[in-house]
Amino acid sequence: ILMVDEKGKNMKCLTFFLMLPETVKNRSKKSSKKGSSSSNSSSKLPPVCYEIITLKTKKKKKMAADIFPRKKPANTNATAVQQYHQQNLNNNNTIPAPNWQGLYPTIRERNAVMFNNDLMADVHFVVGPPGGTQRLPGHKYVLAVGSSVFHAMFYGELAEDKDEIRIPDVEPAAFLAMLKYIYCDEIDLAADTVLATLYAAKKYIVPHLARACVNFLETSLSAKNACVLLSQSCLFEEPDLTQRCWEVIDAQAELALKSEGFCDIDFQTLESILRRETLNAKEIVVFEAALNWAEVECQRQELTATIENKRKVLGKALYLIRIPTMALDDFANGAAQSGILTLNETNDIFLWYTAAKKPELQFVSKPRKGLVPQRCHRFQSCAYRSNQWRYRGRCDSIQFAVDKRVFIAGFGLYGSSCGSAEYSAKIELKRQGVILGQNLSKYFSDGSSNTFPVWFEYPVQIEPDTFYTASVILDGNELSYFGQEGMTEVQCGKVTVQFQCSSDSTNGTGVQGGQIPELIFYA
């Protein structure tokens, strides 16, 4: 018997004499004739039969989905399968064709056919607010397997035998997204319905779908939606999402405060933002954002947006704005003329700016701490040589990637190696050729080998594990310092930054040497 494993390799070879009845009879006759010599010769006879046995190793049992990987059906059934898939998108459809089960090799695919299908449906949901409802079919067993809430609803001690269930607080699109996950094991999220889907997943205790919604929100988080998501994350009790929102709001505070979404937050979230110590924004921007919110809140409360009503809806939150910390010009030309302050408040704040004996104020007078920028220096030394590193309007560029989300606030640049000089710098940040941020500004260098910060108008959000291109075009004194002994990887606190050469660089800058010695960022 030749024993082999599943790959055809020999495991063990054993030889047995399998004696058939006729063979035994013939050999017994020969043995009587030849005597003792027959025993010696019989031992050398070849085996009568060979059999190959496959030895199987212990493996995890395969499911139908593993045996039949998901693929496009054969051409003969393609039309029928596409027809059934289209029926899933519509309501109140049944499958008229016989033996439709034979088109799908796995239980998951057969189960998915029942999604949003009236075939064998034993319950219906009327989903959505009055005037915007949609009637959706369901199957109690499938729903109970996917949600403990549905299990209690249909099979619990207090289960009600209703053929139709009204759900006015969930949007139809969000309910369908949840049903698709329960029936098909597929997560299909969209930016305009993900919050409603998260609400549905929380309501019916579908934790894996809820986690997917939170991950989707985190990856799509930006200054435009951070304030709204902050409000929702507190409502849904998602601390990780809340923390991510605060990171964006702190670093890109002015963009977040100027976004349309800021006006949609609730009063509690407004107070928490106005109290924020690390808010990285000018106080005049905070003040203007609060007034914009008050105007929209008046509309929500069906009030005329007068100065009195704006102050009324702001309430005590007005005193969370640190008006005394504004620049005097910002206060005189902005807050003092807004009308939102009383005459006494305006006079007291002017005295706060100018008088030696400052009056007591209801407003917070301590400046916000903001965020401390971090610097990633990629060169180990710098140098200068005569007739080297001139600019002539050419681009110095480098590519970089980080392992955690950060916000690039600007670059640290070298200055003149021939004494003090002023430079004009056009800085730019791109991802796959798309400009994410740029700014044109001037800076003064004192002739030292120090770096000098040049800032973007707003910090630029940088996602992890993606290469971005940092570029600068300098105009000024033609001789400058330049970096040497560049590093391909730099550890800055908890952030790891990797560098590689950029094809946009036309003035000699690369990983080993050149310009753009520092990235300035918030993390």
UniProtKB/TrEMBL annotation:
GO biological processes: cerebral cortex development; dendrite morphogenesis
Chief location of this protein within or outside the cell: cytoplasm
Span of domain BTB: 121-191
InterPro entries: BACK (IPR011705), BTB/POZ_dom (IPR000210), PHR (IPR012983), PHR_sf (IPR038648), SKP1/BTB/POZ_sf (IPR011333)
Residue spans crossing the bilayer: none
Source organism, top-level taxon: Eukaryota
Cellular localisation: Cytoplasm
Sorted UniProt keywords: Cytoplasm
SMART domains: BACK, BTB
GO CC, alphabetical: cytosol
Cytoplasm as UniProt keyword: yes
Keyword Kinase tagged: no
Name this protein carries in UniProt: BTBD3 protein
The species this protein was found in: Turnix velox (Little buttonquail)
Lineage: Eukaryota, Metazoa, Chordata, Craniata, Vertebrata
